[in-house]
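Hey, can you fold this one?
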Amino acid sequence: MHTHLVDIGVNLTDKAFHNDLSEVVQDAISQDVRTLILTGTRLDELEQAIQICKQHPNHCYCTAGIHPHYAKNWTETYYKQLKALANHPKVVAIGETGLDFNRNFSSPEQQIHVFEQQLRLAAELQMPLFLHERDAHEEQLKLLKEYRQQVPSGVAHCFTGTENEMNNYLELDLYIGITGWVCDERRGLHLQKLVKDIPLDRLLLETDAPYLLPRTLKRKPKSRRNVPANLRHICDQVANLLDMQPEQLAKATTDNAKRLFNI
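Sure. Predicted structure:
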């Protein structure tokens, strides 16, 4: 019997899962990936995520937020709408929120405004943050420091940053989310070293499915689609890097996820 795993970041509302969503969830459960936290990035998608959670009530939760890419869509009614959705019992965090100055699908000004609104909401509802950040660390850190005392906690989702960036998050007593990026012998080498410096009580695992298919998987699907069942593989790889048993790591990361998301 495996220890149950929690996939803290899976994009089940993505069109890649439209045809076989229930099978994908069942496959994950068969690998003892028994809890999936669906990532919310837009208002319309949140409704869909909540529906999926209702269909799989024992296994699915979701986050509620506006991804920085969609910050430009923000209107003054969004705060109220987001708050109503975030109050749903299946919603366990505010996010995916943060700053992305890499692609700037929304202007930096719009992103900062919308991030701050969501920091306010997390403080008001006393919910943890599910954070995204790309090429915007200084700005993101400044806002997080301003609000950190007011929000219970948070996770730097899909972390691929530098040692300094990781330490900044850890100093704010946040969690670090590690994906299959760590299985990439081209881009993930620095992460393989960094993962050893994450305190065990601050480490979380995620697939970010359908993205970031682990390169070390023996049998890769033709579609290149990542699925939550692959979290078991990521757990094995990270345990190997940490020189510990996968079961130990599974237990630690599951305990961390339950503590962070209060599930």
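The chain has a mean pLDDT of 96. Let me know if you want another pass with a different chain boundary.
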